[in-house]
């Protein structure tokens, strides 16, 4: 029989050091790092943010209530303490990586859109109409000149 190499993709695996976005509970919308894997459904997470209102205390969380991100803190020891995790968090600039990710930007954009009032939605519609008109006008001028 031949040798078979079975390798999993390294994208969004549940691993110690992986940063996750919490989607439910009192800390929904905050990010935290996986510190320890408890079992196939739960992990121990800790989120030491620079802003106290965005910190997540160390607790066991269900994997079905979080979205794994592509951000990983490499070589993070299992069960690392909060102070040491904070140093690694700052060293690897986790918050800036998160804020610059397309996932975070699109999430912020959709949250902003949900908070618009009727008048603000009307203004957005009018601005989009004006932009569409300008694009069509320049396209028509380009077609006419060629």
Automatic annotation (TrEMBL):
Which Pfam family, any one of them, does this sequence belong to? Answer: Ribosomal_L14e
Q: Does the keyword Ion transport apply?
A: no
Spell out the Gene3D superfamilies in the cross-references: 2.30.30.30, 6.10.250.2270
- Asked whether the keyword DNA repair is assigned, the reply is no
Question: Residues in domain KOW?
Answer: 16-46
Identify the keywords attached in UniProt to this record, alphabetized. Answer: Ribonucleoprotein, Ribosomal protein
Any one cellular component term from GO for this entry?
cytosolic large ribosomal subunit
Hey, which family's this protein in?
Belongs to the eukaryotic ribosomal protein eL14 family.
Among PANTHER family, the record links this protein to: 60S RIBOSOMAL PROTEIN L14, LARGE RIBOSOMAL SUBUNIT PROTEIN EL14
**What protein name applies here?**
Ribosomal protein L14-domain-containing protein
What's the source species' lineage?
A: Eukaryota, Fungi, Dikarya, Ascomycota, Pezizomycotina
């Amino acid at each position: 029989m031949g040798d078979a190499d079975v390798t999993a993709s390294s994208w969004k695996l549940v691993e110690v050091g992986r940063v996750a976005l919490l989607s439910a509970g009192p800390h929904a919308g905050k990010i935290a790092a996986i510190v320890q894997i408890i079992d196939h459904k739960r992990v121990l997470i800790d989120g030491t943010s620079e802003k106290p209102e965005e910190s997540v205390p160390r607790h066991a969380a269900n994997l079905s209530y979080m979205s794994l991100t592509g951000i990983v803190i490499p070589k993070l020891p299992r069960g690392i303490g909060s102070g040491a995790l904070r140093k690694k968090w700052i060293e690897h600039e986790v918050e800036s990586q998160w804020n610059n990710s397309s996932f975070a930007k699109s999430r912020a954009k959709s949250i902003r859109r949900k908070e618009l009032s009727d008048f603000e939605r009307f203004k957005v519609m009018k601005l989009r109409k004006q932009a569409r008109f300008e694009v069509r006008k320049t396209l028509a001028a380009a077609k006419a000149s060629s």
